[in-house]
Hints:
This protein is an alpha/beta fold. It contains 8 helices and 11 strands. It folds into 2 domains: 2-118, Rossmann fold, CATH 3.40.50; 126-212, Arc Repressor Mutant, subunit A (Orthogonal Bundle), CATH 1.10.10.
Amino acid sequence: MKILLMEDDLVLHEILMEHLRDEGHDVTGCEDGQEAEDLIFKNTYDLLLLDVNVPLIDGFSLVESIRDNGITTPAVFVTSLNTTKDLKRGYTVGGDEYIKKPFDMEELDVRLMQMQKVFNLHNNVMTLSNGDKFDPVANTVNTTKLRKKESEILHYLLKNTNRAVSAEELTDNLWAYDEIPSNATLRTYIKNLRQVIGKETIVTVHGQGFKIESSQ
Length: 216
């Protein structure tokens, strides 16, 4: 999975980063809530692994904020806050799982395996209608490496297969508010993708946007 880890205990941070990578996950680490929020708005993750008591924006407030902005990425709280009140708040703000510190790596692995099953995160590779294999974590189509933003666009279109996605929807979901690209830049990304996966794979729906159709 592509995981964002937020943990301000530097020792535990390094232990978790090493363990998750050893398990085959693609992990990005941060140590405070503001950095985590910036990363979440700029990138796409399969799972958020979040401490609660961190600087700037605590984990509960962070999840509440991203849920208010329509981001539904599964979130797991990993925290020493272990009262029933804390547990209730974690789920109320939009958390999907709650792991109480201290814990061992085996428990973490079991919880993450369960999250993969519940949210269907166990298989990163997606098959296009022309048979190409797209890996949104490795940012590759077959053996061709995509630019990160091209990969994010392709991933978003595939998750919305058979539905026309407007340029505005793409930019709202894949770019930060202060980094919105021009229409010409977005068309360049689409052109580059078509060179890799074929012109017919991404259909332009005039007046509506871009669409990838499922194979019949």
